[in-house]
Amino acid sequence: MAPTARRPSPRTGPPVLHVSGGRPMPADHPATQPATRPGADASRAEADPAADGNVVLCTPEGAAAAERFHDLTGRPLLRAADLDEAGRLLADPGLTTALLSVGPAPLGFVASSVYRAHRRELGLGWIMGWRGVETAVAHAAKTASYRYHGDPAGLVWSSAVLGSVREATVDGLRLRSGPAPDLPRQLQEANALVALSSHGRGIDMWLGERMLCSAPAAASADLRGQAVYPCMQGGPCIRAREVAGRLQEPERVDVASVRADVLVLDSCRSLRIGLDAPGACLATAAVLGPHAGSVLAAVGDAEGTVAAHLDAWRLLRGGAPVHRAVAAENAANLAAAGSAPWVLLGDPLTRIPRSGGAAPHDGHVPEIGFVDVPGEAVAVVADEPEGSAPSPVWVQPLPGTGRAVVAVRGGPAGRVVAVPRSQDLPWLLREELLAAAPALATSRKLAAVAADLLPGPAAERAQAVAQALDDRLARNARLLAGRPAAVVDGGRAHDRLQWHASELSRWQQLHEDLGEVLAAFTRALGPMQTALHLNARETPAAPGEPTEWCPYCGSPANRRRFRLDTLSRARHAVVCWSCDLVYDGPPASRGPGPPSTVRVPALLGPLAVPAGQQAEYRLVGIPPAPSGVRAVRIAVESVPWPMPVEAGPVRHGSEEATEPEPRFAVLVPDGPPGLYSLVTSVVVRGETVTVKRPLHILPPDAKEPVVRT
Question: What structural domains does the chain harbor?
Answer without folding.
Answer: 3-145 (3.40.50), 154-321 (no CATH), 364-422 (no CATH), 426-524 (no CATH), 526-698 (2.60.40.10)
